[in-house]
Automatic annotation (TrEMBL):
PANTHER family in the record: THYMIDYLATE KINASE (PTHR10344:SF1)
Name of the molecule in the record: dTMP kinase
CDD domains: TMPK
Taxonomic lineage: Eukaryota, Fungi, Dikarya, Basidiomycota, Agaricomycotina
GO MF annotation: an example: hydrolase activity
Top-rank EC class of the record's enzyme: transferase
Gene3D superfamilies according to UniProt: P-loop containing nucleotide triphosphate hydrolases
Family: Belongs to the thymidylate kinase family.
Sequence ranges assigned to domain Thymidylate kinase-like in this UniProt record: 10-109, 139-215
Keyword match Magnesium: no
Family annotation (SUPFAM superfamilies): P-loop containing nucleoside triphosphate hydrolases (SSF52540)
EC number: 2.7.4.9
Keyword terms of this UniProt record: ATP-binding, Hydrolase, Kinase, Nucleotide biosynthesis, Nucleotide-binding, Transferase
Length: 237
């Protein structure tokens, strides 16, 4: 029986070099004669992706829960495509996935804004904050990665790399909260993970020079190049 391809996710904070590293990884895998497909979330090309893009550029405002569900729906749009690539034996390399969805929504919701009068805002959003279990639910049963590489960088080092960009979440305080939620997600994923390559969450120190990060990532991906025997798992199941 031929083996299925491995599903590898690269997660990380802004300025962690995530997208650059994913591209280096793609080239290396291809140069080694293996088939690899790169996917990025959010995928802004679909109608749902366009709504997300407009939101991220602050051209539209949406309730936090709605945004969360849109990001998840955007992943479901590609779930069967991911499965079919894996069945064809291709390695799927994914730039952000459900873990970003949870980290950003929960981090955003953990803000406690103070109104100009000094009272806590009592909008519906604050009455029903996005909790971790709530945030996990819409993504449950999506294809589960065999390996997640989390590129970790401190907000201080991110600032030395030119700071953050123009989009909605690219601010130092938000990035700090996102990092904390990612840490908690990592603990939860690790608690569920099996043997090497079987749903592992690996924290990579992305504050180092680019080639050191590439080599560490490569060390984790290399054992998966020949494919995986076990069936594709389902997220949070
Ligand atoms: P990029 O800069 O990588 O294009 O991401 N985000 C992403 C969410 O809030 N929820 C999600 O489910 C995903 C995948 C992270 C754009 C921003 O979108 C955030 C940064």
């Amino acid at each position: 029986m031929t083996r299925r391809g491995a599903f590898v996710v690269v997660e990380g904070l802004d300025r962690s070099g995530k997208t650059t590293q994913a591209e280096i990884m793609r080239r290396r895998i291809q140069e080694g004669g293996r088939e690899v497909v790169c996917i990025k979330f959010p995928d802004r090309s679909t109608p749902i992706g366009k709504m997300i893009d407009s939101y991220l550029h602050s051209q539209s405002d949406l309730d936090d829960h709605v945004v969360h569900l849109l990001f998840s729906a955007n992943r479901w749009e590609f779930a069967s495509t991911i499965l079919s690539y894996l069945e064809q034996g291709k390695l799927v390399l994914c730039d952000r996935y459900a873990f970003s969805g949870i980290a950003f929504s929960v981090a955003k919701s953990s803000q406690t804004p103070i109104s100009t009068e000094g009272h806590l805002e009592s909008s519906l959003e604050k009455l029903s904050p996005i909790t971790l279990p709530w945030a996990r639910a819409p993504d449950s049963a999506l294809p589960s990665p065999d390996l997640t590489l989390f590129l970790d960088i401190s907000p201080e080092v991110a600032l030395t790399r030119g700071g953050y960009g123009e989009e909605r979440y690219e601010k130092a305080d938000m990035q700090k909260r996102v990092r904390n939620v990612f840490e908690e997600i990592g603990r939860q994923v690790s608690a569920n993970a099996g043997e090497a390559g079987d749903g592992r969450w690996v924290v990579v120190d992305a504050g180092r020079d680019m080639s050191a990060v590439t080599e560490e990532m490569w060390g984790h991906v290399q054992p998966l190049l020949d494919g995986v025997d076990s069936p594709v798992g389902r997220l949070w199941e």
